[in-house]
Specification:
196 residues, mainly alpha, 0% strand
Length: 196
Amino acid sequence: MPDEPRDPKDPPGPPENAEEVARQILLRRLTDQPRSRAELGQALRKRHVPEDVATRVLDRFVEVGLIDDAAFASAWVESRQRGRGLARRALAAELHRKGIDRETAGQALETIDPDDEAQAARRLVRRKLPGLARHDRTVAQRRLVGMLARRGYAAGLAVAVVRDELRSAEDGADAAPPEVADAASGSDDSSGVEPA
């Protein structure tokens, strides 16, 4: 059975000291980006580090604070909620895929304020609205609610936010000065003559 190709980043030669090889793999993975214990355990299994050695090295990294699933989960939630506008449900699914247990994920997700989550949904909708201007209200509403649903927002919140933002956009177009309203409606009066 052919051996799996060696990762060029792995230490050269046969693993004479499995613990040292495991430490090097973990340090390299942690240098790239923060990772959960489960992700690092998977990396060690992939490189055929014996289970007892992997457990011992992972435990030592947890003990000295190099692996901290609670800190990882909190940082992940903050980053993904702020940067991508993800809601709790989507973040919980991502943390689960990263191997974070429910209790730790729940603690990290508790830091999300419901008002902040609603504001993030509003920002996402406002960002997408200009690209949907050529579509009728029903199509725009369906697409915006779908976008929020894919990011983990509850249906009730998504529908309410989209309805409010569409109404605000329509009211804003109605209340705009004539030249702005004309541009928004697509009419083009290029005669340069002011209407009487």
